Amino acid sequence: TQLLEQSPQFLSIQEGENLTVYCNSSSVFSSLQWYRQEPGEGPVLLVTVVTGGEVKKLKRLTFQFGDARKDSSLHITAAQPGDTGLYLCAGAKWAGNQFYFGTGTSLTVIP
Amino acid sequence: NAGVTQTPKFRILKIGQSMTLQCTQDMNHNYMYWYRQDPGMGLKLIYYSVGAGITDKGEVPNGYNVSRSTTEDFPLRLELAAPSQTSVYFCASSTRGAYEQYFGPGTRLTVT
Questions:
Q1: Which one, of B109, B95, B91, lies nearest residue B6 by Cα?
Q2: Taking a C-beta distance cutoff of 8 angstroms, is the pair A89, A23 a contact?
Q3: How far is CA B39 from the centre of its chain?
Q4: Which of B42, B104, B105 has its CB closest to that of A101?
Q5: In this predicted structure, what is the pLDDT of residue A93?
Q6: Which residues in chain A are closer than 8 Å to B100, comparing Cβ atoms?
Q7: How far apart are CA A6 and CA A23, in angstroms?
Q8: A92-104 pLDDT tens trace
């Protein structure tokens, strides 16, 4: 069973387009993180959101944590080829020591 | 700073063989984790440690063992390799639980 489901699983878009990736669960999380992973490398943290309804921006990337703390979204504006990679969400439970990772969204931005 | 290092980068094992995947971090992090990543499945936690001498099971611990004798090292042991253990293995560390994790480059293991 997968605690966090991401959609879409694969996404291929043209440079300059906008996109949104979703991370959904029936569980409540104390915090949620987004990572990007490039081929042959480990995931690298992009952002952590900790408050229900929180919105964080990182240049062209906008992250939102759902009000009920069960879901999150990642929106990319004017995608660039450098955004290509696997995007992973990861949620932490209250008083826990571990993260539960989502299924991942593989993004390809075509020049 | 080297961060989190893993060896080897690639390994092919025959069914029934054993091996140890090495993980070392130089950031003085108390928490360390082992994950496996299968295609289309995200990362699954195998074992984690909250400090030297303390380890605990994650989601998929069967077929693996760990030890944590020092803060820096967290080796993962496969005793009787099976084809189901073919995967990419990542080690990660963090300053505290459920906090930013720093990942190593991974070990790609094939069991045939």
A1: B91
A2: yes
A3: 17
A4: B42
A5: 86
A6: 33, 45, 48
A7: 4
A8: 987 777 889 998 9
